[in-house]
Amino acid sequence: MFIELNGKRLLVTGTQPLERLLENHQAKPPYAVAVNGRFVPKGQYAALYIKEGDRIEVLAPMEGG
Amino acid sequence: MHLYDVELTSRFWLGTASYPSPQLLLEAVKAARPGLVTCSLRRQGQGGGDFWAFLQALGIPLLPNTAGCRSVDEAVNLAFMVRELFATHWLKLEITGDDYNLQPDPFALVDATRELTREGFQIFPYMTSDLVLAKKLLDAGAQVLMPWGAPIGSGQGLNDISSLRTLRQRLPKIPMVIDAGIGRPSHACQAMELGFDAVLANTAVAQAARPAAMAGAMAQAVQAGRAGFLAGPISARELAQASTPVVGTPFWHKEES
């Protein structure tokens, strides 16, 4: 199935929890995650399974004004 | 100064974006010793590298923003991400209402402030200089306000002094920080002379020919402006008034009219 990770279309095989997707794509801590525009607390990464078409944002600290 | 029960050591605050290099940002921070620095969140893999380690090493309070948000919903979700990542309840709430001058959306700002205050955030709303908006934001739970001096990055200084003066006069006890539009140290000084509590600058420092020198100059200007405000400036007047006493002046003569 296709999902979107940080704006890029991505093919993933099988159902998998968010936690595994983040590991497989080398998300580097610290980061915070939103799925389909909703914040997902760290504690839910293992239980939340990715669905077709999900838009996942992995955000990291950056410069800001 | 004291904000939301935190003591800040300086009334000059510094943004961390758009410096030519991380080294120049570090030098600017060292020169200004700002009371806090602002930061943000972006998609991972967009550069930035070890910015988190950099921020932690500074040992200066952080004020994360929600720059780039265009709705209450976006801002609220980003706020939760910010809080988890930066481990702070402080949030510089930015919701853009116009892409041309990056003007804050006053209506969304009030709604998001209310919602986030309920969730335990301590909100620093980036706002226009409208007095009624300020009152609504306070009603919604903000305890600090951040009115703009001019549009972000414009360097115009305080382009609506009259509104800012009104804000200060009508809300004398509310901590207010001029955020955005500062271009020169004199602008920062002027904001402080008007009685504002602090100044936040980013582009004016980051894009200066020598960022560290400009950061230091801004910090000094903020100090001078604050001292001037506390000293009670005289009011401007239309006509001259001799500062040197004229009584007893030699060769004194009065023109016959």
From TrEMBL, chain A:
InterPro entries: Beta-grasp_dom_sf, Mopterin_synth/thiamin_S_b, Thi_S, ThiS/MoaD-like. CDD domains: Ubl_ThiS (cd00565). SUPFAM superfamilies: MoaD/ThiS. It holds the Pfam family ThiS. This is Sulfur carrier protein. It comes from Gallaecimonas pentaromativorans.
From TrEMBL, chain B:
One of its GO terms (biological process) is thiamine diphosphate biosynthetic process. One of its GO terms (molecular function) is thiazole synthase activity. Residues 3-245 form the Thiazole synthase ThiG domain. Pathway: Cofactor biosynthesis; thiamine diphosphate biosynthesis. The keyword Transferase applies. It catalyses: [ThiS sulfur-carrier protein]-C-terminal-Gly-aminoethanethioate + 2-iminoacetate + 1-deoxy-D-xylulose 5-phosphate = [ThiS sulfur-carrier protein]-C-terminal Gly-Gly + 2-[(2R,5Z)-2-carboxy-4-methylthiazol-5(2H)-ylidene]ethyl phosphate + 2 H2O + H(+). Keywords: Schiff base, Thiamine biosynthesis, Transferase. Its EC number is 2.8.1.10. It is an enzyme of class 2 (transferase). Catalyzes the rearrangement of 1-deoxy-D-xylulose 5-phosphate (DXP) to produce the thiazole phosphate moiety of thiamine. Sulfur is provided by the thiocarboxylate moiety of the carrier protein ThiS. In vitro, sulfur can be provided by H(2)S. This is thiazole synthase.
